[in-house]
Design goal:
Chains A, B, C: Residues 5-78, 92-161 form the Glycine transporter domain. The structure is a homotrimer of 204-residue chains. With 204 residues, the first copy, chain A, is mainly alpha-helical. Helices cover 72% and strands 0% of the residues of chain A. Chain A has helices at residues 2-24, 29-51, 62-77, 83-111, 116-137, 150-162, 168-188. The first copy, chain A, is globular and about 45 Å long. The model of chain A has no long low-confidence stretch (mean pLDDT 84).
Chain lengths: 204, 204, 204
């Protein structure tokens, strides 16, 4: 039950982020729906592909699909209701989606008996894959590889689950809250992983 | 038989559209072949992936593959024969390819017992997926999400077939003609679905 | 044994090329790892998808994965060690990776009993797919379709193996050397396949 709620929050948050990008690119109504659905379900699809679940398992998510369609329809019809609030609450929603999907992806891969590396990748892909496909389809440079430790938190969630450090509703709930809080903190304090620009090491 | 002809028309139309983009991007001979093949067969490959058919079913389409190679070779060797005519007849060919592939994709998904939503998505992906991959590979912003109801017509074809409103050669033939005509009309009269630019709803 | 060495060289060369692009794009540490892994393993993943091997077979390559991680860590920590040398030896490494992966992809497809066209495509995808995904993820225009016969040499390797013209360690070794040499020669002498710019055939 807790789990379903998290999944719903993730789906809504990612569908809305797809709607925003589609509106920024001046897509029409169908383009808005498609980009929203791709963002909400694309991460799970790529994860399924790489860990050996049939991608067509997507079609069993009928309820989430319906919720996403309803949310996107409301968002498209009444943008004034939420666009301004998005800047304030969007980050929180996105962090919750990131955490929920990363944890779900890691559990999925664990249940299939994959090794730790695959569990971490599954967490990362489920959490960030939808946004990646959204950016590629919208002709944008995917930012998830240089944003403030965005993908890093999903990998930590994957590591924790892959090492079996938490379990049960309470353990997963704590992990969920931890990922959300860490993601929020990394944005507010602009935490950065080490970068290296190439030029400085090249001879002139 | 009718069906094979439609499939051949779709393959040729999409292969040629890939050849045009490859020439615009100054690709070499192999680049031309690859972009043509990707455009002609990419939609079916993505559709197969998402509805649970092995993507390797691609390799059973030997005849279509051969036809596409021959057409692309002629197109590359004698561009003056067709490039100018393309602007006039290319739209019709593209509409026929769109309709044929959308109908084929929807039938495919229906036969596999997928729900209506999957049938619509299969129609949309088969009809438009090849052009999408072509644009991503050529480093272009995919336009199918904002062109004149491009993807919308494929979804209507999927809806009609998913609801079992038509069947048989005659029913499918009528649907095919309807999609082609609607697509042509939407270009000539510049029909547009509702758009929303984001800025107007943001506070300054 | 010889084979494993080739595979290791290919993986290292492609992982380093991903690291270079990630540094040029100012990605952070995790972005560097991800782009390196995608470049090294993406071609095999796409090949598996298209010839009907489960993509999850990726996870059996644990040793290569570990090698890639170690190499990328060293490369990130000590860029001054190799970035300047890369321009001199990078081309050779890349050619060896291209040849090793193309041959491996073609053998894979042959063993599965696919027709000649699939063997050629498997060779091309395994050799060049990783670089393609790398460029798309980094928001760059994929260059492999117009670089000096880059993909062409992989297809020749596929053709030779698909027609069963070579076999055994010695035969494959000769093919490997031939592909590397041809690739190097095509860069040094700037061999080009025929190009056609579209504009010259369009009426004004």
């Amino acid at each position: 039950m807790t789990w379903d709620i998290l999944n719903i929050i993730g789906t809504i948050a990612f569908a809305l982020s797809g709607v925003i990008v589609a509106m920024e690119e001046d897509y029409d109504l169908i383009g808005v729906y498609i980009l929203g659905l791709v963002t909400a379900f694309g991460g799970g699809a790529i994860r399924n592909l790489l860990i050996g679940v049939p991608v067509s398992a997507l079609w069993d998510q009928g309820t989430l699909f319906t919720i996403a369609i309803i949310v996107m329809t409301i968002a498209f019809l009444f943008p004034s209701l939420w666009v301004n609030r998005w800047m304030r609450f969007g980050l929180l929603f996105d962090a919750m989606g990131l955490a929920a999907f990363a944890i779900q992806g890691a559990l999925y891969a664990t249940e299939m008996g994959h090794p730790l590396s695959a569990v971490i990748v599954a967490a990362a892909l489920t959490g960030t894959g939808g946004g990646m496909v959204r950016d590629v389809l919208a002709g944008r440079k995917p930012l998830f590889l240089r944003k403030e430790i965005y993908i890093g938190w999903t990998m930590i969630a994957g590591l924790v689950i892959g090492l079996n450090l938490v379990s049960g509703v309470i353990g997963l709930g704590i992990l969920f809250v931890a990922v959300v809080v860490l993601r929020m903190l990394s944005v507010y304090y602009q935490w950065q992983l080490p970068h290296r620009k190439l030029e400085q090491f090249q001879s002139p």
